[in-house]
Structure prediction request, 185 residues.
Amino acid sequence: MDYTTEAILEGISMSNSDVLNYIYKKFFPAIRTFIEHNNGTEEDARDLFQEAVIVIYRKMKKEPLVLSCNFKTYIYSVCKLLWLKHLERNKDGTEIKSEGVLDNRLDETSQTYDQTERYRLYQKYFEKLSPDCKKVLQLALEKISLKDIADIMGYKSEKYAKKRKFQCKQQLIDSIKSDNEFKKV
Prediction:
C-alpha cells in the first residue's frame, strides 16, 4: 500500500507505526545509499534517518507542514541537510555526492535539529544532577515562586531557595559547557 504525502505527514504527527514502517521501508534505502557514498555507515544512515523523522515530527508540532514537493524529496533533503551538518560538526571536508540543491526553506528544519541537539545535551546533564537540584530547577521552570520553592523543599528562607536555584543552574551550565558537543551545537 502506498500513502499520499498528506497521509504520511498525518501518520508522522499521530506516531502511526504502520506509516512509520512504510516510511522506513520506502525511503530508507535511498538515504542509506547517499550516506554510504559520503563516508558514512549503515548505522550512521539509520541514526540520521530516525533523527530526520523526529525533526519532521517536531516541526509539525510547532505548525502545520505544507509541502510543495513529494515526501520522498522532502525527507531526502532533510537527511542531506542533517548529514551536511554532521560532517561540518565533525570537520570532515568531504565533498557531498548528490544531485539536486538544498532548498533555503530547510533552514527552519536545520534550526529544529539544532534545538533538538541542544535539548538532548541539556537532558543528559540535567539527569546527572542531584535529586534536590533537579526538583529545584523543575519548580523554577514551572514558574513556582521562590517562597513556594522554599516551602516545598523545606528550606529555611526564600533567600536560600534563590541561592540554591542559582547553584543548581550554574552546576548544570558548567557541566554542559565542559562537554565537547557543546561547542558543536
In short: The chain has a mean pLDDT of 82.
